[in-house]
Amino acid sequence: MKKFIDTLINIYNIQELRDRIATTLGILLIYRLGAQIVLPGIDSVKLAALTSRADGGGLLGILNAFTGGAFANASIFALGIMPYISASIVVQLMGIAIPYLQKLQKEGESGRKQINQITRWLTILICIVQAPAYLYGLSALGVPDSAFILGRSPLFMISSIIILVTGTIFAMWLGEKITDKGIGNGISLLIMVGIIANLPLSFTQEVISRVSENNGGLMLILIELVVWVVIILLSILLVMAVRQIPVQYARRTAGGTNERNVFGSRQYIPLKLNASGVMPIIFAQAIMFAPAYIGGALGDSDLGQWMQASFSDIFGLWYNILFAVLIIIFTYFYTAITVPTNKMSDDLKRSGGFVPGIRPGKETSDFLDTVMSHITFPGSLFLAAVAVFPAVVVKLIGMQQGWALFYGGTSLLIMVGVAIDTIQQVNSYLLNRHYDGLMKSGKTRRGTA
Q1: In this predicted model, what pLDDT tens digit does every residue of 248-281 receive, in sequence order?
Q2: Within this chain, do residues 24 and 172 fall inside the same structural domain, yes or no?
Q3: Do 9 and 63 share a domain, yes or no?
Q4: Looking at residue 383, which CATH number applies to its domain?
């Protein structure tokens, strides 16, 4: 505990880091306050049906978790930051096929700014489509017509659409401000804070269920917490695991005032076990909406009824089997488009490096591609296992669905990934000021110039 307190003191002693953390916390507070502001013209008291359906887990529970409860509150931030995430994914995928975007990706900082601008405009278009769909869908989600104080007049619809679009753009701006003026990746932090906001309520519901219904009691709660910590540790290993490919440099120039040639310098190419991150889960979840809709389109036929029954429950057997298969497929797909082994091989060849025993050029590219394929397979299996584990604990031990969502899937991986990224940024500030990082002892380093 003393080491941890020393680390906090070291963080406080660095004014720039202290200011960045304060800025980040302030912006996150603004975002959480905005999630509680209900759209003008909607009676918040009559949103109980929507709240209960969202708290009950399922697809609505996932949407509500990603917006930090704003979806169920009919808040000005009801669409959350997800339209921006969707736009980013679309632009990233379009960059594979559209030469103009490929050109921008190679232009460095100026190209990145133009791509960001394209992503922002695409976010607005997605919001314009999603906002009216959300407003019209409230009735289908159990919100009575009496909740709309002034009715669904054109004035209410137009003003609400403008507010929802503006809310998402404002949330996007807050995320970018965190990235520029705060600590960590702003967009990811907004998502993580929204997810964590549901954690206390979900855990409280699980405790009440276990204790009041005599369903395992506090001992089972303790076991669940231990298992949760183990899953978090395994997820950290999944996020940070790399396969190091040795690289030999025949001749390199060491910088400094007295330049000299260095022969036989060896470095490593770190190939991540899970290079695709949480994207395969996001893609798979987007597609998992389709089977239930197809079943509804088939009507009262045996196949239609089976598809509706099997794929409407996110904790069901067939849903999770298909979910796991899609995650494995998308892991390979997303890794293939985000890890350019050809470019890595060309860059290595231009810098005078080579993999020992492998010829530069195409053979190196093929070797890197083979290694990526081999390490992606266990990575995809692990990712699929983490994604379907909430369904396992719901079916095996009767865990509350809201609490079970924190046992795996996108929520857990996002929390782990964002926490690691933020800690690494804090560590960089500490190390630059000659302090040990958060994962070290926290003492001031001695004898460092």
Answers
A1: 876 555 555 454 554 455 688 888 888 887 778 8
A2: yes
A3: yes
A4: 1.10.3370.10
Domain count, the chain: 2
Going by pLDDT thresholds of 50, 70 and 90, the confidence category of residue 55 is low
Is residue 106 classed exposed, middle or buried when 0-12, 13-18 and 19+ CB atoms within 10 A define those classes? exposed
304 and 416, same structural domain?
Answer: no
447 occurs within a structural domain:
no
Q: Which amino acid is at 318?
A: W
Instruction: Report the alpha-carbon distance of residue 439 to residue 264 in Å, rounded.
Output: 33
CB proximity list for 311: less than 8 A, separation 6 or greater:
288, 291, 292, 295, 318, 319, 322
Beta bridge partners of 251: 263
What percentage of the chain carries pLDDT values higher than 90?
11
For residues 266 and 300, membership in a common domain is answered with yes
> What is the gyration radius of the CA atoms in the chain, in angstroms?
25
- CA dist 368 and 192 (Å) reads 33
Shared domain for 210 and 276, answered yes or no, is no
Query: Residue 232's closest CA among 19, 357, 22, 415?
Result: 415
Spell 375-401 as b/e; 16+ CB within 10 A means b. bbeebbebbbbbbbbbbbbbeeeebbb
Question: In this structure, are 253 and 176 located in the same domain?
Answer: no
Can you read off the two tokens belonging to residue 132?
Answer: 């009216």
Q: What is the pLDDT of residue 165?
A: 93
Nearest to 199 by CA among 82, 55, 81: 55
Whole-model pTM above 0.85?
Answer: no
Residue 416, domain extent: 2-215+399-432
75 shares its domain with 177: yes
